């Protein structure tokens, strides 16, 4: 058992077991069973490479054994930062089978995030590609290993250049340790609203249940072909139903080199993709692109859109333009996932973010005093259930704030319930910017800005954006010698922050507006940037 991972109360755990949510199965077992059932059926496709279920199962066994020989033990944490390539699936399943725990980093993370994950999770190893999207991950790994010496192994998919080659780890298989279904299967990362992202411990039992329920809602089976266009480590393309749900259903996962129409459309046509998932800005791009080119998207049955609010105007265009059913997905790496159903009336699919996928999900919509609001009123969304975590890893103080005494997770989202029981997301109370599905914790960026010698104070807020929905604006009180916006942005980049967290705009200000309690009024700052944007629009 890993320490510092809060568990469900015993009575709740018994109830979820008794009702068949938690079935006592591990991810290693699940893949083995699928290999028996689906043998030569294709599990994973990437460019010209095809892996059957049997091949995948065998490669995972050999890699698990090789990783074990290298010294990776059950419960060891391993930061995995791989793009959408078949090795992504092999590595995580090998770790699952070994009982080691992947920390699901995104390819866009840089030294600031990765060093923190390695340190906080006390990772024993770090798995990377050689290069991806023009970036050399081996340079990043060298920096990480220098700062965090307990990262004993850096394992490279591709040219290892002095590190350990992933290819060399596929050994003859031998015996593997027993893994428990109530162990942690992986750590997801929170979008966060505090200075540092939190680690989300998901267990075999609860994560598997989220796959089972997702697969049922989305109607996946062995004929389904899922295109992984978004970065597969994120909870949406990983498990809703995503890569893992597709394998659970015996279907085929196709990895796209990227999510743009140029990259994804030919793959959809060639592999007869039936379902894929996008964030709203990409869905907009696809809707535009399809108007101007000759593409065969006739195999596509379901387009899932989630991660950020999808506008009703864009939602309305999906069926007529792409010829497939839209499914809105409102989920979170902490657990709860809501889907519009495939047979929902059009108005529900266009105007709501769906309803919880499990009858065992409990939701409450409350006011500032935690009292439930009247049905239909907007309030803060709280949730508890068989696949929503009861607490973050090693974060006692934060957990006391973010979970109620009876175990509900405070999502930080503002939502209301329609008379039919669907949720509509109306905003958020958490100090986070949702940049087209990529979450930016204001405090994390503020802390980096404050590290600059000429920054006296900083406050990061969202500003509206037609394409991404929101972008980030940093308000800065500077001292002499005053830096330029470009200097501050480059300072942040050099501190090794993921590119999507670098402020889109920097505004210098003499003092911050305050709330009656004396806190910085981010609402006022959002109004200020809106007005500045309106003025510059009028000037155009
Ligand atoms: C997904 O997971 P995270 O952890 O990156 O972000 C969760 C947050 C939610 O609390 C909400 O603020 C926002 O992202 N969000 C949406 C949304 N889907 C997520 N806001 C409005 N409309 C939506 N459809 O983003 C995630 C995880 C699993 C499945 C889908 C999305």
UniProtKB/TrEMBL annotation:
Belongs to the ATP-dependent AMP-binding enzyme family. GO terms for molecular function: 2,3-dihydroxybenzoate--[aryl-carrier protein] ligase. GO terms for biological process: siderophore biosynthetic process. Residues 32-393 form the AMP-dependent synthetase/ligase domain. This is (2,3-dihydroxybenzoyl)adenylate synthase. Pathway: Siderophore biosynthesis. NCBIfam families: DHB_AMP_lig. Keywords: Ligase. Pfam families: AMP-binding (PF00501), AMP-binding_C (PF13193). InterPro entries: AMP-bd_C, AMP-bd_C_sf, AMP-binding_CS, AMP-dep_synth/lig_dom, ATP-dep_AMP-bd_enzyme, DHB_AMP_lig. The keyword Ligase applies. Residues 444-519 form the AMP-binding enzyme C-terminal domain.
